[in-house]
Design a protein that fits this description.
Elements (H helix, E strand, L loop, with lengths): L1 H4 L13 H9 L5 H5 L3 H5 L6 H17 L1 H7 L18 H4 L3
Amino acid sequence: MTALTAPVTPLTSLAGVGAKTIEKIEAAGINSVEKLAGMTPEQLMEIPGIGEKMVDKIYQAVNRFYEGGAEAAAATGAARCERGSRDRGSRGSCRRRRSFW
């Protein structure tokens, strides 16, 4: 049931991550910012074509998304915290997400 109500934000929402990188990530079965944020750097580097420098760029893009884009996403309903696991910060985004890696 939780999987049906979990937010799904397309990877194209990440500023600073190129289309080719997004294609590589999606080819590995990661199709949302939320799934990407739940991955470790080691898991990302297992994806063919993703190295340490790219992991750093992805990390920065995901952090920018949750720090600066969370308000806009929340306004559209794309970045909702699940009821019961709600641990909201002053910006209205999930703290769990803001502590990416």
